Amino acid sequence: MSTINQSGWKPEMGSAGETGPATYTGNKALMLEEALIFEIGTTGTTGVDLADAPKVTPRLGNLARHRDIGLPGLSEPETVRHYTRLSRQNYAIDLGFFPLGSCTMKHNPRLNEKVARMEGFADVHPLQHVETVQGALAVINELAVWLIKLTGMHGVAMTPKAGAHGELCGILAIKAALEARGDPRSVILVPESAHGTNPATAAFAGYAVENIPATSEGRVDLAALKARLGPDVAGVMITNPNTCGLFERDMKAISDAVHAAGGYVYCDGANFNAIVGRVRPGDLGIDAMHINLHKTFSTPHGGGGPGSGPVVLSEALSPYGPIPFTECHADGHYTLVEEETANERHPHSFGRMTAFHGQMGMFTRALSYIMSHGADGLRQVAEDAVLNANYILRSLEDVLDAPFAHSGPCMHEALFSDNGLAEGFSTLDIAKGLIDEGYHPMTVYFPLVVHGAMLTEPTETESKATLDQFIGAMRSVVQRAKAGDPMLKSAPHHAPRRRLDETQAARKPVLVWREPEQAVAAG
Ligand SMILES: *Cc1c(COP(=O)(O)O)cnc(C)c1O
Questions:
Q1: Mean pLDDT, the chain, as a whole number?
Q2: N or C: which end of the chain has fewer CB within 10 A?
Q3: What is the pTM of this model?
Q4: What's the CA angle centered on 274, arms 94 and 427, to 5 degrees?
Q5: Is 13 in the pocket of ligand 1 (CB under 6 A)?
Q6: Gap from CA of 61 to ligand 1 centroid (Å)
Q7: Domain range list for the chain
Q8: Domain spanning 111-368: which CATH class is it, in words?
């Protein structure tokens, strides 16, 4: 290993010539270099002083670890600086435009945060007596009523903690309904453009997954779907609007056909942002649909969570939904339907998705978002999101292949392919070029039905000026990819790190920097 100074700088880190002379530290004014903690920490340094643990005989015997784990340590201020420096190299929705398709990365209004931090909401505990949490239950119930109204459905399960968790909830309700009528079935049909969570959910719930092909328009092939329906098909999972950014116009016909064959219809509602206030899934014959509060209803979803994925249910499936849930009585008083009460009040429930009542902080945020927009405001959200996506689609289709541009207006996201780039150039080069331009790349290589897919979702919260700048950057990067600019092939040049070997990083992650210096015999 080469020499490392205190801040972890190595001579090869400097990038002389690109943005000015190399600096001694590797820092460029406020662009601070930071090495890995494995490179700057030592096993001898620690931020805390703890007395040595008393020696004990491990009860695990030979299974107990007999040597140091060799984790590098830093002092307290070094630790704070290390993570603060790393955090400044992150991209965030509060820093810039986030065109990730299928994710609905919209602005998180500060009002939501203010409301979620009110003591009565922030400090509530799931084990408090029900009489002391009437306000929290009112929030859950009020949000539930909005979700039912917006979707035109019969009931809603509030507890699932993300979209994928909601899918599992919906599929378990379908399974319970089929079993209750003595007709367990074995197959779930999923279109080829489906999000990976759909087939994963169906498989996790014990179903065999079969693909339904798409038409050349990018929509579900209704004839192929009808041909496959039969007594073994438990249901279908259809994303609407779908992951090609298109509205499934045949949704009602699909639902009718599935119902006629005795199955149920699950709708992946992650893209509800495009149709909220305009289309009610209940009118399309859907039996269960999850809603990602962290997408459509603006609760934050950076850094892996927390998400929240309530599932709206049809009248046919509602009896099978999970407990616990809140009940509002005529006098405005709330109670909870839990195991003890479920037997008489909700005897067909498939059980429980979570220990408690779901993501309270997300409920508060989503409800403040919904109430501050009102019904008309939510409708405008959908209209503006769709307008923005079509603006991007039509502003780029002359330079970038848009395989479904002929299928009519897109919904909330615009889909492009890598068709027409110079020999040897791909979607990955465009994504890396966008990093140099200061953008988080769009979703790449998904959906799989399009070669080198670039799925771009602007959301309604971006201004025309922001979209114009992004479109300009895209046109520039695409033109470089078409001209075969070798500098693009090695982008990013201005990011804290150059192009990484992503396969190597995923397949052979280096999680330990070195062997522990000495083995410590235990016991
Ligand atoms: C985001 C998304 C999901 C999964 O939702 P999570 O909250 O990430 O679990 C499922 N389907 C589609 C189409 C999505 O965009």
A1: 91
A2: N
A3: 0.89
A4: 65
A5: no
A6: 44
A7: 111-368, 382-498
A8: alpha beta
